[in-house]
Amino acid sequence: MDKKDLLSKELKTVMEEDTEGLELSQNIIDNILNSRELTWRDKINNFLNHEIEIPLAPAVIGFAALLAITIIPKDIFKVEKIKVIQIGSNQILVREKEVSRK
Fold first, then answer.
1. What are the E-state strand segments in 1-102?
2. Distance between CA 53 and CA 51 in Å, rounded?
3. pLDDT tens per residue across span 18-61
4. Which residues, 6 or more positions from 93, have their beta carbon under 8 angstroms from its beta carbon?
């Protein structure tokens, strides 16, 4: 056996014997956890575990707007150019409209 392993095992058993009846309060445990430096893995885990709160009214309005945009045809808001050609007492209406691509 390596001396380093033997020494670490002895230190571990001595520390376990000394702290066997020791209990930490929740306040001390929280203080230790808050004062330690977070690793990148802890930071990512904390970021991914955040609870997202979405207010109901803006969510409903956003969903309704998205639904309206997808249902309403795109050509409905385009402006038509109407030319009126008069020949004598007759009128000819010429509508110019772009053809939509689907």
1. 81-87, 90-96
2. 6
3. 888 888 888 988 898 888 888 999 899 988 988 888 899 999 99
4. 82, 83, 84, 85
